[in-house]
Amino acid sequence: MARPTITILYFASATPSPTTRSETLPFPDTGTLPLADLPALIAQRHPHISEVLGRSGWSVNEEMVGLDEGVVLKGGEVVAVIPPVSGG
Fold this sequence. Notes:
The relative contact order is 0.29. This protein has 2 helices and 7 strands. Strands 2-1-7-4-5 form a 5-stranded mixed beta sheet, with no helix packed on it. It is an alpha+beta fold. The chain has helices at residues 38-45, 50-55, and strands spanning 5-10, 22-26, 33-34, 57-60, 63-65, 72-73, 78-82. Strand 4 (57-60) and strand 5 form a beta hairpin. Helices cover 16% and strands 31% of the residues.
């Protein structure tokens, strides 16, 4: 049986590199992953975006959610990292 994955979509200043707009991460062996733990997991792979991860918004399967909402990933989700933006 294939190991579950999480697809991460990156935007603007949260993009790890000019050629990395998305990536698929293997799901942890624990079977679940609190969304609140995902920024640290991403920062291990891409330390240079760790600061923006802490200020970013998050969506899971196209629904905006907060890191403090107790969302638990189970594998197969698409998570978007949406950095802060300014407008005028």
